[in-house]
Amino acid sequence: MSDTSEKERPEKGQPRRRQARGERRIAQLLAAAAQVFCTTGYTAASTNAIAREAGVSPGTLYQFFPNKEAIAIELGERLVHEMREAYGEALAPVAPATPLEEAVGAAVDRFMAFNTEHPVFFALMHGPDMPGGITEAHDQLHATLVGRIEGLLASLMPGASPADVTRTAHVCLGIYKAGLELVLAHEGAERAAYVQEVKDVLVRYLGPLVGDRLGRT
Amino acid sequence: MSDTSEKERPEKGQPRRRQARGERRIAQLLAAAAQVFCTTGYTAASTNAIAREAGVSPGTLYQFFPNKEAIAIELGERLVHEMREAYGEALAPVAPATPLEEAVGAAVDRFMAFNTEHPVFFALMHGPDMPGGITEAHDQLHATLVGRIEGLLASLMPGASPADVTRTAHVCLGIYKAGLELVLAHEGAERAAYVQEVKDVLVRYLGPLVGDRLGRT
DNA sequence: GACAAACGCGAGTGGTCGCTCGCATTCTGG
DNA sequence: CCAGAATGCGAGCGACCACTCGCGTTTGTC
């Protein structure tokens, strides 16, 4: 019943005990993969290129990842884990008296900060060339985000049908993703201006829907 | 000096006289390529798969196209040609007294009709996995569209700086592309509802910018 | 009908890529 | 210090893919 004491995974056939060196190599390889995925996309990225970027041999790469897809999966999982922390704070606490502009502005700022800090995320989610496993994970995350937005909108749009709320949530996310693409394509002041545009689009889109509740006076 | 009489292209080394059969095969191959590109994307699409879809041999395909990229290029050029006709009418004539809602609604309807009729277009423009030549053509078209929208906005936003107009045009196009993705992902009534949402987003976004000029009373 | 050119085929070629294998090196527990 | 495991290597294997080549068939022209 009780294991020895160290980290063990009785569920998997091979627990694959790692040394500290191994964990370092994994982080190194994931960073290299992020770099390569960002510049060339997933399909065009070769495992040999990732290994070269990390400064190791192809064989070493396959010591830690069973195949190319697993690299992207693991990278995605770590990003989602990081994101859940940032987004839990970004979307969950919708104070009842918060003006719409503030709520949208804060959420957009948090999302934009995360995405500009981890451009791989956009590359992985946006590519239409992902194999099954990644698309699956992406859809799951997408559904989670839409659910969160639905939760916020439901309290703002009391008279709307569930289908309307869902549709509105999808539109909001679509607007954000389109804005993100524009934001990532610019730098400095221009980038900040585009961030403001995204906020404006969302506020003006949602303003009439939420009625007088949280809209502008 | 004088050529025989038939159609000849002195500019190119090989005029490559075509028979009617050849033109038919080209159309057939482009249709097959559109189908395959739509389902698998450009990079994942194999030339052998395109030839199989068209019911011909790989050798026959290469009788009419020098390489895989040329297929996408030619397909893109024909689509752009078709689009220019539809879009010339969709964007050019901005009647001075047209309400904003009508102008946006008409433009969105035309664009959506074209894109739902030719889903390949979205697949080719949206993929981040295209080789140089296609990206180049895409950027050119993108710039053309932005220029058109800028022209429309310039007359609606007299007080705005050129940079503001350009940014607004990019945002409009981004909104449209995001909406297109949502529209293509749904069918029937849901699709129509999303089309309406796109119009609403654009009208509410542009409304405050154009002032009292063409906005709602 | 005869000649040439366009068309059509499909096995084959060179190259790339994901991934493996055998072996050397480094770490860890006893 | 010494088995044994984890780590590291890089040449190489099999598969796939864009593309070619030689040869047979159809079509247009005189």
Automatic annotation (TrEMBL), chains A, B:
It comes from the Bacteria. This is TetR family transcriptional regulator. Residues 46-65 bind DNA. Residues 23-83 form the HTH tetR-type domain. Keywords: DNA-binding. The keyword Phosphoprotein does not apply. GO terms for molecular function: DNA-binding transcription factor activity; transcription cis-regulatory region binding. The keyword DNA-binding applies. Pfam families: TetR_C_22, TetR_N. Residues 1-22 are annotated as: Disordered. InterPro entries: DNA-bd_HTH_TetR-type_CS, Homeodomain-like_sf, HTH-type_TetR-like_transc_reg, HTH_TetR, TetR_C_22.
